[in-house]
Amino acid sequence: MADDFKVTPWEVTGDIDYEVLMQRFGTTPIDDALMKRIAKYGEIHPMLKRGIFYTHRDFGKLLDDYDKGNKFFLYTGRGPSGHTHLGHIMPWIFNKWVQDVFEADMLFQMTDDEKFLFKDLTLKDTRALAYENALDFVALGFDPEKTKIILDTENIKELYPIALKVAKKVTFSTAKAVFGFDNSTNIGSIFFTTIQAAPAFLPSERAGKQIPCLIPCGIDQDPHFRVARDAAPGLNYPKPTMLYCKMFPGLGGGDKMSSSDEMATIYTTDSPKNVKKKVGRAFTGGCVSVEEQRVKGGNPEVCAVFKYNFYLFEKDDKKVNDLVDKCKKGEILCGECKQMLTEKINVFLEEHQAKREEAKEVVDSMTFDGFKW
Amino acid sequence: MADDFKVTPWEVTGDIDYEVLMQRFGTTPIDDALMKRIAKYGEIHPMLKRGIFYTHRDFGKLLDDYDKGNKFFLYTGRGPSGHTHLGHIMPWIFNKWVQDVFEADMLFQMTDDEKFLFKDLTLKDTRALAYENALDFVALGFDPEKTKIILDTENIKELYPIALKVAKKVTFSTAKAVFGFDNSTNIGSIFFTTIQAAPAFLPSERAGKQIPCLIPCGIDQDPHFRVARDAAPGLNYPKPTMLYCKMFPGLGGGDKMSSSDEMATIYTTDSPKNVKKKVGRAFTGGCVSVEEQRVKGGNPEVCAVFKYNFYLFEKDDKKVNDLVDKCKKGEILCGECKQMLTEKINVFLEEHQAKREEAKEVVDSMTFDGFKW
């Protein structure tokens, strides 16, 4: 497959070849041995089994530490540039599983500063969006006793000294090479990566000793954490351990669900009617006519509807395999498949939206250092 | 005079030609008309009369505003990289005069973050030095009701959102051109100027309207405030008004007193004995022998001892002129001059050190937003 795709924290273009990307970034595949090892702690999450979380940095080492009684904390985050869609919550669902299995404390960083710097948004905008996004995060059921939400502009006093320490170790050369910055990049954007590094080191800084950190997130964030990992040893912080997932696909067939295409994006607050409309327009692997599809079958590999089942909405492996089989044999048509997915998404969203309402009662108690929204 | 000198906030090298520097930076001389205008508000400070504060940006405009009842606040600061010496307090003494004459509120920023980023110091070091420096600042008698001390890492929550707004307006290109950064500069140093800009805009941000700001400081800080002034209009902040002074000379004859030469630097905590020793070794405009000097006279223009009288320790213009006269005629020798200066400095330091002790009782009540040291 071609190598002409680009993945940075701010831009995903071209058709991503995830194997090539892994080699490019220098991360390690999650192989059978590691998978077997993970299975000892709890039932393997479908996102691992299906290769959605597919590559890592030092995960085996983290488990070695864990086995010795050295507990890690979880850290992931969200850049609040828009309303929450399914692509955002996918890795959060995985984080929830890790929290449950390993009884891990968790930091969730909302980078309102980043989105102000990189997008045409005010700080008021990004703060309001952060609140909306936080409701979705909380709705997923993270343990309120073990989970704290960081809002960068609110918690900057704790983050800033750590960010400074990281910043002192990172030259513009490095930032340029890692993120593709140039002379026209604003100096806030150049500095920002240090703020994203900070939560990974915050518990170590507070404790005055190394507390291991696991960051499950999209692989597009690797440039940030390469920088953070390079800086860590010189600061006597532990290198954060990474577990990376693929991007959640867009309904239009693209590699990454993006708010830039509203109709190919399912938001957590969408109505059942909207979901039906959006899924109805989804890109599928079907043929141009029913007759042709009955004979030739469809292609689930390119089908957004199938991917949604595979990534999030069909947890039963047997049912996933059946779906592939039936599709390829022409036994199931796109309309039927879309209808089933619509129902699954709407069932999920109905429950999620109820929990999202409840989250409004809890979200204040989960802020880091007790800030008020 | 040669143009081969360099003045940035972090480096002063070569023989500074202050006229050339003014042209290079594009600031305006303080001319007779402006001086006459200032005289209407109070007795002209010797540092203005003697051209130590010698150039400005928009000072006339600030006075226009003031005359219309639009009060300004003062802002100056200190990078806590070492103990306070006479070169540091010189512009603070001037600030105190401005505060008194214009009854101005004042922000004093201590950039512990900057000195961490630019020097081989820890954040603990720069914080401890900031406290020491703050005592000297407070000892000068600033009105505790009108004066607040900012410590960047303590007050970052107020500074950061403003810094982000500035940062979004400043490209790496600009930072490179203004400060001479290159690819090897760390990304914290690149970002830092936005933190130094923030206090200039902080009262405007808090008030939700434009509050004029006057910054009397060393001309080496102009690069920072050029950036701040360029960013201001787009953020609906007022451009800060600048009053710039020349660098306080070193005892060794250099253009800037610097802690890198301990023996040519008089610290505010020096003992009378130490002062005597340091002044005794000062570079003068004297001749090699007493006999020669009696005949040829000395050269006050290059003499550090004379400069100390001129910059800080002889407020009486007549006495300054007498000193020049007598020196040139060989009527006064260097030893005598050094002895007189030593006495003046020690009288000043005795009083200052007593006030510095008293400052320990007040300094906590003068912190911005009430932080504890």
Automatic annotation (TrEMBL), chains A, B:
<dbReference type="GO" id="GO:0005737">
    <property type="term" value="C:cytoplasm"/>
</dbReference>
<keyword id="KW-0067">ATP-binding</keyword>
<comment type="function">
    <text>Catalyzes the attachment of tryptophan to tRNA(Trp).</text>
</comment>
<keyword id="KW-0030">Aminoacyl-tRNA synthetase</keyword>
<keyword id="KW-0547">Nucleotide-binding</keyword>
<dbReference type="InterPro" id="IPR020653">
    <property type="entry name" value="Tryptophan-tRNA-ligase_arc"/>
</dbReference>
<feature type="short sequence motif" description="'KMSKS' region">
    <location>
        <begin position="256"/>
        <end position="260"/>
    </location>
</feature>
<dbReference type="GO" id="GO:0005524">
    <property type="term" value="F:ATP binding"/>
</dbReference>
<dbReference type="InterPro" id="IPR002305">
    <property type="entry name" value="aa-tRNA-synth_Ic"/>
</dbReference>
<keyword id="KW-0648">Protein biosynthesis</keyword>
<protein>
    <recommendedName>
        <fullName>Tryptophan--tRNA ligase</fullName>
        <ecNumber>6.1.1.2</ecNumber>
    </recommendedName>
</protein>
<dbReference type="GO" id="GO:0004830">
    <property type="term" value="F:tryptophan-tRNA ligase activity"/>
</dbReference>
<dbReference type="InterPro" id="IPR014729">
    <property type="entry name" value="Rossmann-like_a/b/a_fold"/>
</dbReference>
<comment type="similarity">
    <text>Belongs to the class-I aminoacyl-tRNA synthetase family.</text>
</comment>
<keyword id="KW-0963">Cytoplasm</keyword>
<dbReference type="InterPro" id="IPR002306">
    <property type="entry name" value="Trp-tRNA-ligase"/>
</dbReference>
<dbReference type="GO" id="GO:0006436">
    <property type="term" value="P:tryptophanyl-tRNA aminoacylation"/>
</dbReference>
<keyword id="KW-0436">Ligase</keyword>
<dbReference type="Pfam" id="PF00579">
    <property type="entry name" value="tRNA-synt_1b"/>
</dbReference>
